[in-house]
Structures are given as C-alpha cells and as structure tokens.
Amino acid sequence: MDIRQLEYFVQAARMKSFTRAAESLYITQPTISKMIRNMEVELEADLFYREGKSVRLTDAGEILFTKAQNIVESFASLSSELDNLRNLEQGHIRIGLPPMVGASFFPSVIGQFHKRYPQVTIRLHEDGAKKVEEDVETGLLDIGMVVLPVDTAKLHCFTFVEEKLNLILPMGHRLAKAELVPLSELAEEEFVLFREDFTLHDRIITECVKAGFQPKVIYESSQWDLISKMVAAGMGIALLPETICRDMDRSRLVVIPLTDPVIPWQIAMAWRRDRYLSFAAREWISFAKGLLRTVPK
Q1: Residue 41 phi/psi, 5° resolution?
Q2: Which residues form the HTH lysR-type domain (predicted)?
C-alpha cells in the first residue's frame, strides 16, 4: 500500500462517491475503483459498501479512514515544506469563496496577488459559506471566506467585513415608504432566500423564529442578482447585506434598514489552526490582510 492509494481512499471516503472523488483528483472512475479494490484484497477486508452511485465506509473502512487521514495530512505537510525549501515563490492555493463575497471583494485582491506572484496558482471554489467552512475544516480548502460566527477552536480567522442585512422590497409594497422596519412586521410576507448551504439561510430563519414567526419561503437561490430580480417582480421580499444592496437597481427596488433586531453580516478569512500552511497560502493571507479592510475584534 502506498501514499497514493491512501489519498484516493481518503478522498472517496470524504466525498462518499468514487465518481466525485475521481473528478476531484483528475483521474478516471475505473482507476480509483481498481485501486481501492486492490487495497481491499491486500487488507482482506471490504472498505466500502457500494450503494448505487454512492459509497459508505464499512467498519474496517472507518478504522482505516481514521489512520489514513493522519498519514495523508502528514505526507502533504512534508511535501509542502520541502516545496517551500526548493522554491519559496511557487505554490498552489485552494480558496473557498461564497458568490457574494467573491464578486464584491476579491477580483482586485486576486489580480494584484497574481501580478506579484505569477508562479503561484490559485484554484477558486465557489460555494455557500457553510460549505466553505466545512471544506476548510476537512482540509479540502486551504483558506475560505466564511460568515461569522465560526468554531474558533478549529479555525484562525480575521474579519474584514462587518455589515448588517437590509430589507429589499418591490416598488409599491405596503412598507416601501417606511424609514425602518422591525422584523416582526414581516410575519405575513413571502421570503426569497439563499439556499440551505448559505449561512444567511439559517440565520434569517432563526431570527424570524425568535421574532415569533416561521418565515414563508417561496424560493431559494444561490445568486443574489436573481433574488433581487424576483423581489423586483413582486414575488416576495428578501434580506440582503449592505454591500449587495449598493449594487442593486434602485429604480425597481426599495432598500430599507431592518431593525428589532439588526441582523449582522460579518465576513472573515479562515484557515485551520492545526494544519500546516504552505508559503503561498501564508503569503496570500498576509497580502490580503494588507488590502482588505480589517475590522477590529
């Protein structure tokens, strides 16, 4: 058994699919299936239950997964440290960006970083903040932009955005001329929300429940511009961060501050406390800190 077999096995266990694991590793599905089958023969134990297109670990697989993760991570750390010694200006960074954060804050940062370090490659993964946080914790990403709060026992982070959510209404709405709107006033409204893998999805529902009602969600999306267009078309209301509201078409929408409560939207760059960071990743963090507005904690 070699390190490559363990890497393939760990990825398949994390993604619960040979096909998705193969895609993420840029190999074919038969290749990863064959290698894992060879491991099972060598160990004389089945490692996965095959269930259609998905897989799950057997008892033997769980034992191997616990040990294999440590081996793979140690090997990756060793490789990264040796790479740094060979060439400090080369490297690869995996960064997670929620769509709202990426479009609003990072094109300039990425462009300037690439200009200074043209040999460093950056792979951007666009997902909701919950998925980004999860992937940083599991090691699929080196760095991620997350919505606070996060588990600071596991993650280092620095905050660079601190805003609040605004209420977005269509023109002519009964509340369109209000200066402030308490959350409880929205109990009978229909909501357009971000999908469940976005932190704002759970945050908004939680605050509505605290205000005494379960929001009526009629549509969920991963795109803030689609959400705003649906509101403009009179399909419902939305709660969106101030940064997003500044880019909206105010001729079709009304933006009003929300109160009682004010719902915060804090964005931070996060990375694992107990994981070795390559020179490229550490330089990205330092570089981004110098360009982004850092909010004191």
Answers
A1: -65, -45
A2: 1-58
- Give 40-64 pLDDT, tens digit per residue: 999 999 999 998 888 999 999 999 9
pLDDT class of 19 with cuts at 50, 70, 90: very high
Residue 237 carries which DSSP code? B
Cβ neighbors of 164 (< 8 A, separation 6 or more) are 241, 242, 257, 258, 262, 263, 264, 265
Cβ(73)–Cβ(81) under 8 Å?
A: no
Walk me through the domains of the chain, giving residue ranges and CATH numbers: 3-75 (1.10.10.10), 86-160+266-291 (3.40.190.10), 161-265 (3.40.190.290)
Q: Which of 263, 42, 272 is nearest to 154 (CA)?
A: 272
Whether the predicted pLDDT of 297 surpasses 50? no
Q: Name the E strands within 5-64.
A: 48-51, 54-57
Q: Using the predicted structure, report yes or no on whether residue 225 has a pLDDT greater than 50.
A: yes
- Residue 244 CA to residue 149 CA, distance in Å, equals 20
